[in-house]
């Protein structure tokens, strides 16, 4: 069975997320046994950020901010789509709390809608999000 990294790298909709994971040096972590749940924003989500924001995050000087941002889309443990419940609280790898909202047949994580779900891998599962969480650069 493929790994979550292989799923991410094979999906052209996750190419920006995958590139960030590589630059943030998260690949070794995501190659571990896990399991992990990836909540990967699609490329359009990163393209909708303020002009140049994502490119600035990819700068080696901002590696810490990139690592913090991307770790916010990774959860320890395997959370399948049907495991998400309204008002559920999840903790991401960066220690921040994520809130699940289920309404009108849609599931959102911190306000980002899950577009595709349950892409199972040997060390976890990948879900795709329609937008990013707040990104702040000082």
Q: Can you offer a commentary on this structure?
A:
By secondary structure, the protein is of the alpha+beta class. It has a domain at about 5-80 and about 115-130: FAS1 domain. The protein has six helices and seven strands. A seven-stranded mixed β-sheet has the order 2-1-7-6-5-4-3. A hairpin with a 5-residue loop joins strand 3 (about 90) and strand 4. Helix 2 packs across helix 6. The longest helix is centred in the first third of the chain and has 9 residues, at about 15-25. It is globular. The protein starts with a helix and ends in a 9-residue tail after the last strand. About 30% of the residues are buried.
The percentage of residues in β strands lies in 25-35%
The main β sheet shows up as: 7 strands, mixed
Structural class: alpha+beta
What integer is the average pLDDT?
92
Number of strands: 7
Distance between the termini: 41 Å
Oligomeric grouping of the chains = single chain
| The top level CATH class name of the domain at 4-81 and 114-129 | Mainly Beta
Strand order, main sheet: write it out: 2-1-7-6-5-4-3
Runs in which pLDDT lies below 50 for 5 or more consecutive residues are none
């Amino acid at each position: 069975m493929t790994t979550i990294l292989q799923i991410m790298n094979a999906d052209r909709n996750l190419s920006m997320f995958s590139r960030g994971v590589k630059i943030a040096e998260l690949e070794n972590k995501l190659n571990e046994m896990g399991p992990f749940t990836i909540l990967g924003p699609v490329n359009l989500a990163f393209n909708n950020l303020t002009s140049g924001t994502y490119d600035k995050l990819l700068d080696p000087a901002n590696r810490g901010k990139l690592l913090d941002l991307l770790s916010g889309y990774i959860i320890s443990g395997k959370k399948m789509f049907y495991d998400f419940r309204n008002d559920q609280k999840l903790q991401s790898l960066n220690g921040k709390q994520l809130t699940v909202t289920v309404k009108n047949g849609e599931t959102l994580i911190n306000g980002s809608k899950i577009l595709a779900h349950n892409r199972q891998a040997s060390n976890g599962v990948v879900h795709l999000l329609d937008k990013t969480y707040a990104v702040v650069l000082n």
